[in-house]
Design a protein that fits this description.
The protein is α/β, with parallel strands linked by helices. It folds into 2 domains: 7-32 and 273-374, Aspartate Aminotransferase, domain 1 (Alpha-Beta Complex); 53-269, Type I PLP-dependent aspartate aminotransferase-like (Major domain) (Aspartate Aminotransferase, domain 2, 3-Layer(aba) Sandwich), CATH 3.40.640.10. The protein is built from 14 helices and 13 strands. Strands 2-8-7-6-5-3-4 form a 7-stranded mixed beta sheet, with helices on both faces. Strands 9-10-13-12 form a 4-stranded antiparallel beta sheet. The longest helix has 25 residues, at 271-295. It is globular.
Length: 375
């Protein structure tokens, strides 16, 4: 199977270890194991729980405890609607392997994580892309979506909150997308890894899995839950999707690690506290970014409503990759070039990491912009 190189991951692989100030990171600043256990009140008792564990494959579809904890993040879902996977990247891959066949038609709302169009294209599907536009504040044109969907459309894919723009679809808009899909019997796959990181309000954004009978939600411990090191995600989907995904999981995953499963269950049983921390981080840090953008004439953006990333438009006659390489070489600051997201003329800023690194990094970016302007 031939597939395009994963541009964002190739960029991070090449440059992430070379930077001093990682403003390309998309996770909310990671929790330490000590922080997680302290938050859960298990710092002193965890070994008593872990030492008796026999390190088998564990529950293949995920432990009952963990699947119950995942289901609790949804309004209408239960344990049997959940499959545990190797991160959201594994969850998304399983969905496409389970549902997509050569000749199928899909619609992908982009920009988005490259999985959502490159994997189905590699299988032999035709993928039409609905591009988010800055003049629409990076919200999808639903009339344009209707025009792209045909009676042969198998699936519509999107991320909500959106990566990289930080735009956010509310219930009414998700319901409209579900109605467009329902008219032709299509699935809707919504990558919801940033769910819980809104700038306003403390309620979880409605999930497509709760709003649509053929809605598929994928999520993970990495972004909003600050535990990327667990490498654990999930699919919440109709039973026929999970059954089809099981067939492929048996070939490439079998199960996740028992310790990952156990620690993820602890974390999700305290999801309110972790998400409150995450919201505090993204709101505090975005306020810093917002003040910086408002003082930089060479940079503009549509202020994110959720998530951990912002898409910055820059005023300089260089490609986004050249911009980012030169920035890294001269300052140690790492952005993600828009070209890696099929959004040339922009760079992606991750603002949910260490606040001091963001403040220092943005100061250095200002100096770099002045140097570019003087050249």
């Amino acid at each position: 199977m031939k597939i395009l190189p994963f541009a964002v991951e190739q960029w991070m692989n090449a440059y992430e270890t070379r930077c001093r100030y990682n403003l390309a990171e998309t996770c909310v600043e990671s929790l330490t194991l000590d922080q997680l256990l302290s938050l859960a009140g298990k710092r002193e008792s965890i070994l008593d729980e872990l030492l008796p564990l026999k390190l088998t494959y564990g529950a293949i579809e995920g432990s009952d405890r963990l699947r119950d904890a995942v289901a609790a993040l949804y309004a209408t879902r239960a344990r049997h609607d959940v499959m545990i996977a190797h991160g959201a990247i594994g969850a998304n891959s399983l969905v496409y392997q389970a549902l997509v066949e050569p000749g199928d038609h899909l619609v992908a709302i982009v920009p988005n994580y490259q999985q959502h169009y490159s994997i189905p294209e590699s299988i032999g599907a035709r993928v039409d892309k609905l591009r988010l536009r800055e003049e629409d504040r990076f919200m999808p044109d639903l009339d344009a979506l209707r025009r792209l969907v045909t009676p042969r459309t198998k699936l519509i894919s999107l991320s909500n909150p959106n990566n990289p723009t930080g735009s956010l679809l509310e219930r009414a808009q998700l319901e409209q997308i579900a109605a467009i899909a329902d008219a032709v019997g299509a699935y809707v796959l919504c990558d919801e890894v940033y769910r819980g990181t809104t700038q306003v309000g403390d309620e979880l954004t409605p999930s497509i899995a709760d709003l649509y009978a053929r809605g598929i939600s994928t999520g993970s411990m990495s972004k909003a839950f600050s535990l990327a090191g667990l490498r654990l995600g999930w699919i919440v989907a109709p039973s026929e999707v999970l059954k089809a995904a099981e067939v492929h999981r048996d070939y490439n995953t079998i199960s996740v690690g028992m310790l990952d499963d156990y620690l993820a269950a602890i974390a999700l049983e305290h999801s309110d506290q972790i998400l409150a921390r995450s919201r505090s981080v993204v709101r505090t840090n975005l306020a810093v970014v917002d003040r910086w953008v408002n003082t930089e004439s060479a940079v503009s953006y549509i202020r994110p409503r959720a998530g951990t990333t912002a898409l910055l438009k820059y005023a300089a006659p260089v490609s986004s990759r050249d911009f980012c390489v030169r920035l890294l070489d001269s300052t140690g600051v790492l952005f993600t070039p828009g070209s890696a997201l099929d959004m040339e003329g922009y760079v992606r800023l991750g603002y949910a990491n260490n606040l001091r690194a963001i403040e220092t990094g943005l100061e250095l970016v200002s100096g770099f912009l002045r140097t570019l302007a003087a050249a």
